[in-house]
Design brief:
Number of helices: 6
Strand order of the largest sheet: 1-12-9-14-5-4-3-2
Shape: globular
CATH topology: Jelly Rolls
Helix content: 10-25%
Number of strands: 14
Number of domains: 1
Structural class: alpha+beta
Length: about 260
């Protein structure tokens, strides 16, 4: 479980960094799979993994056992359970990864000003009740010039929109966005944050690729935000613990009449 200090910092800032969450052997397995998947054309599928854009691969937990292992990884799953308030169970409402090369960035988005239930930050009666907690796992080093994740600490409790969010035309390329801090990560590190936190990715100027996997966790009664459903093959091979996170509620259908 998270320590008392980790809970304090998560409440205060809206995020935590977990160093060396994924070991080097596991990283190699993940990146070997990505080397194959990144050849999938935009709009095409590889099994149940969908290439939705130049940088995005959706339902990445369908890519193989190394990605399945991330579903309930011991480095962070107890933190997620505590912050979602998931004593009744968790659900991954989106599991994807991005591959970004030179020139790519991610615009500043989110913030508490919208007061959305799905992404809310809430603490009541000694319990966190966060609508969505993201675990972003660095699969390559993401340091200065690599497009590091940027966050605005404390914005998960903000009442006002960040001025840089007012225009959808703004992107998070400016290193001097007021209030934002960069979170450099080494391959294998993870940043865990509530989705109400304003966040984005800096402009990549270095050669090579920024590879991250992102699993978004919420209460067990949630649904996939894009409508993806797990394959029967995935459900069949998952451990019971992982199955409860990918499909916490079994579909109910009338019996088949012969």
């Amino acid at each position: 479980m998270p320590t008392e200090m980790e809970e304090y910092l998560f409440d205060l800032k809206g995020f935590l960094v977990i160093r060396e969450a994924i070991d080097s052997a596991h990283l190699t397995e993940l990146n070997d799979l990505i080397d194959v998947l990144k050849e999938v054309e935009v709009g095409e599928w590889s099994g149940y993994v969908h290439r939705t854009g130049p940088s995005a691969l959706q339902s990445i937990y369908e890519a193989g056992e190394p990605f399945e292992r991330l579903i309930d990884h011991p480095a962070y799953i107890d933190h997620v359970t505590r912050f979602v308030g998931g004593d009744d169970g968790l659900f991954i409402d989106e599991g994807f990864m991005t591959i970004q090369g030179p020139g790519a960035s991610g615009r500043l988005h989110s913030g508490a000003h919208k007061r959305r239930i799905r992404t809310q930050f809430r603490y009541h009666n000694g319990q966190f009740r966060c609508g969505q907690v993201n675990v972003l796992m660095a699969l390559t080093d993401i340091q200065d010039g690599d497009g590091p994740t940027r966050v605005v600490p404390g914005s998960h409790k903000s009442n006002l929109i960040h001025p840089a969010l007012v225009s959808d035309e703004r992107v998070f390329r400016d290193a001097h966005v007021e209030g934002a801090v960069e979170v450099p990560l080494k391959a294998g590190d993870a940043i865990l944050f509530v989705d109400a936190l304003a966040h984005g990715a800096g402009y990549r100027t270095n050669p090579g690729e920024r590879r991250v996997a992102i699993y978004r966790y919420g209460p067990h009664w949630g649904s996939n935000r894009h409508g993806y459903v797990p394959s029967d093959e995935l459900i069949a091979r998952l451990t019971p613990e992982r199955r409860k996170i990918i499909q916490p509620l079994l579909p109910k259908r009338p019996p088949v009449v012969a």
